[in-house]
């Protein structure tokens, strides 16, 4: 290899490397191609969780909210064996049952309406076993509402 070619290659490699690294930086407007679930301990891979691509689902997003706020009355050994009308915390299918307290609505829609009424201090409030209103954070209410709008996906 001639000396001038060797010199040019030696100086071009750092420039190409710098350009390649700079292309990885930016405003995040585009997603990198390939599998985003690469192990975080792989060399050069940042310790960032892979982004979720699925919509809201009962088991991943909604059931944890229900476990936090509704489990006192709505858990049991079968879809109808609990203190509340249905055991929707443990049984996804119970959310599709028609509600007795809301004409023509399933349990998920009726429950959301009651959650919203409680937050707005309207009649038909949700109360816990202690008799006090159960008021969910707005973020949880919004998440349940979006999930219902999406068709209540289970998984």
In round numbers, the mean pLDDT is: 75
**Biggest sheet: strands, sense, closure?**
none
- The secondary-structure element order is HHHHH
Derived from helix and strand composition plus strand pairing, the structural class reads mainly alpha
* Total E-strand runs: 0
Rg (C-alpha, Å): 26 Å
Count up the helices: 5
Can you tell me the overall shape? Answer: globular
Share of β-strand residues? under 5%
- Amino-to-carboxy terminus distance: 61 Å
Helix content: 40-55%
Unreliable runs, pLDDT <50, ≥5 residues?
A: 5-9, 11-42, 49-53
Commentary on this structure:
This protein has about 160 residues and is an all-alpha fold. The protein has a domain at about 60-150. The protein has helices spanning about 5-25, 60-70, 70-75, 105-120, 140-150. Helix 4 runs antiparallel to helix 5. The longest helix has 21 residues, at about 5-25.
